[in-house]
Specification:
The chain is 35% helix and 25% strand. The strands form 2 sheets. Strands 6-7-8-3-9-10-12-11 form an 8-stranded mixed sheet, sandwiched between helices. The chain has a 4-stranded antiparallel sheet with strand order 2-1-4-5. It folds into 2 domains: 239 residues, Rossmann fold (3-Layer(aba) Sandwich); 71 residues, no CATH class. The protein has 12 helices and 12 strands. By secondary structure, it is of the alpha/beta class.
Length: 325
């Protein structure tokens, strides 16, 4: 049976137009989120992961602008919707967990009321019905004494509880798609494990999830598919086991090498030389050529296309062409 895609992104481009020039934060990105699966986007800070998520929901701040591509939710192009229509999609059909719950939650509103708001907006429930469902959802995401916690303010909760509140807010309207942007950042390992377990449960109950992370360990634990981003572009994607077993792009291998050197207890930490390039001054070709130990003549001048190196496994690297020739 052919897998159905809940979300299909095609050649998405988002730029920031500054006095110094155009910054291509998301540059010709295409990806799929399959129904009932967790799809990951991984890469260093500043590579375009969060901006891709914000572009999907059209939550771009000036001077950012969506300048091309399609964002298809069950075949409907979200880039063509009016702002009123898009407001109905946000929270109703697509929900998002933002990076830092303390800055995303209203500090002067009780958390139960914040969970209720989405229901009252998208489902038109009475105050009593919304309150009952909000408490039930807080319990469903593992918050003990949900009625008591619903009356708390965000600062009265731990980081893990605040993150669970964010997940409850995101899931209360039973969206088709959940976008989780670094949902375990700044949480201790015990709470992180609880949040990841909860995300697996959501996936097993049919929720499709787009998980954004810089942590390859998190990606390996919960994702079914993974896209690797660098300087605004997808440089490799595959099923998670295939990518971890056969990393092909030099950037992917560098990321995995840094993790494996830590896990092996090596005295020498493997690193990727150089720094993430300034998006205002990228080479015409492969952006990773500035840091790549396998750079060939012409890599910086000619942009490589995404090419298949195995079924369902594509890589943006000139060396794939050399191997397959």
């Amino acid at each position: 049976m052919e897998e159905k895609n809940v979300l299909e992104i095609r050649q998405l481009r988002t730029s920031f137009f500054t006095r110094r020039g155009e910054i291509r934060a998301v540059d010709d990105v295409s990806l799929d989120v399959r129904e009932g699966a967790i799809t990951g986007i991984v890469g260093e800070s500043g590579c375009g992961k969060s901006m891709t998520a914000r572009s999907i929901l059209r939550l771009l701040k000036y001077p950012g602008r969506l300048i091309g591509g399609e964002v298809l939710l069950d075949g409907r192009d979200l880039t063509k919707l009016t702002e009123k229509e898009m407001s109905a999609v946000r929270g109703g059909e697509i929900s998002m967990i933002f990076q830092e719950p303390m800055t995303s939650l209203n500090p002067v509103m009780r958390v139960g009321r914040q969970v209720e708001e989405a229901l009252r907006l998208h489902r038109r429930l009475s105050a009593r019905e919304a309150r009952e469902q909000a408490v039930a959802m807080l319990a469903a995401v593992g918050i003990a004494e949900p009625e008591k916690r619903a009356r708390c303010y965000p600062h009265e909760l731990s980081g893990g509880m605040r993150q669970r509140v964010m997940i409850a807010m995101a899931m209360i309207c039973k969206p088709r798609l959940l976008i989780a942007d670094e949902p375990t950042t700044a949480l201790d390992v015990t709470v992180q494990a609880q949040i990841l377990r909860l995300m697996k449960e959501l996936r097993d109950n049919g929720t499709s999830i787009l998980l954004i992370s810089h942590d390859l360990g998190v990606i390996a634990q919960v994702c079914d598919y993974v896209y690797v981003m660098y300087a605004g572009r997808i440089v490799e994607h595959a099923e998670v086991c295939e990518l971890f077993d056969h990393p092909t792009h030099p950037y992917t291998r560098g990321l995995l090498g840094a993790v494996s050197s830590l896990e092996s207890g090596s005295n020498t930490l493997q690193t990727i030389p150089g720094v993430v390039p300034n998006l205002l001054h990228l080479p015409a070709g492969c952006a990773f050529s500035l840091r790549c130990g396998e750079c060939r003549k012409g890599c910086a001048e000619h942009l490589p296309a995404l090419r298949a190196c195995a079924p369902g496994h594509e890589v943006r690297c000139h060396r794939i062409g050399e191997v397959n020739a």
